[in-house]
Amino acid sequence: MINVKNLNYKVKHKHILKNIVLDTKNTQITAIIGPNGAGKTTFIKLLRNFLPITSGQIDLAGKSIQSYKNKELSKLISYLPQTTKAVSCSVEDCILLGRKPHMKFFPKKSDYEKCEKIMDELHLSRLKNKNVLSLSGGELQKVLIARSLVQESDILFLDEPINHLDIKNQLEIMDITKKMTKQKKITTFVVLHDLNLAFKYADKILLLKDGENIFYGDKNEINEKILSSAYGVDIELIDYKGEKKVIY
Ligand SMILES: Nc1ncnc2c1ncn2[C@@H]1O[C@H](COP(=O)(O)OP(=O)(O)OP(=O)(O)O)[C@@H](O)[C@H]1O
Predict the structure, then answer these.
(1) Which residues belong to any copy of the ABC transporter domain (predicted)?
(2) What is the C-alpha separation between 144 and 84, in angstroms, rounded?
(3) Whose CA is nearest to atom 26 of ligand 1?
(4) Could you give the CA distance from residue 231 to residue 209 in angstroms, rounded to a whole number?
């Protein structure tokens, strides 16, 4: 679904991303990990065509990203940035905005039904009529994630989606993201700082450091040495109930 070849991005003389190569398929979750300032957000923005590529190529569904109109990309890609400013409206109306790329003028019954379903799945129904500006940081984050998921796009980009959430809500969001990725056969990229969650939910890992692709591949192929050197701390990987766990 997404194919990236020798992607470079420079701002003035600063080389922010260097020769990134990757190839994802539908139904795959790719966790983008790496230290602060590694280039994770910049990479997502390039994939969304919000920044101009310096050199290299990004193809979506076999077509160069530059050949898509912005409206087409809005329909194809759902993108939740690291920080989003909420405007005064009800939780339901905020989530309904996720259906905008599918609407002609006004929301249809099916748009409301999809909102109800996602609110139910994320246990947000009790907040339906509340103003988003009165929500806690974690509640608002869940509403914004619901808005991204209700869009039902082919590609989903979540930039640090679970930062404000408690453990239960983190798992709930990652569970539903995985369920939707598999059931709806979409391609998902999620920027994560929690390596345990990356190993639990991702199929593939992209590890960036100083703009370089230190590792890209199946999560089971990454090793302690690569992780330790990327983060500059001693990292141990252990197998626990069939899953990789990180100790540091
Ligand atoms: N427009 C810009 N001009 C100059 N430098 C920039 C610009 N945009 C990003 N950078 C730099 O590029 C690097 C990568 O930034 P980016 O936000 O992509 O990192 P990140 O991996 O998402 O970091 P974090 O984990 O802290 O969110 C940083 O050093 C940042 O300062």
Answers:
(1) 2-235
(2) 8
(3) 36
(4) 8
Q: Which residue ranges have their beta carbon within 6 Å of ligand 1? A: 11, 14, 16, 34, 36-42
Query: Nearest residue CA, atom 4 of ligand 1?
Result: 11
Point out the ligand 1 atom lying closest to the alpha carbon of residue 35.
25
The tally of domains found in the chain comes to 1
ipTM above 0.90, yes or no: yes
Query: Any idea what the CATH number is for the domain that residue 73 is in?
Result: 3.40.50.300
- Residue count (the chain): 248
Q: Please give the distance, rounded to the nearest whole angstrom, from the Cα atom of residue 37 to the centre of ligand 1.
A: 5
115 CB-near residues (< 8 Å, 6+ apart): 92, 95, 96, 98, 99, 146, 150
What is the distance in A from the centroid of ligand 1 to the CA of 31? 18
C-alpha dihedral sign at 83, 88, 93, 96: negative
Whether the full predicted model's pTM is greater than 0.90, yes or no, is: yes
Atom 24 of ligand 1, residue of closest alpha carbon: 36
Range of the domain at 238: 2-247
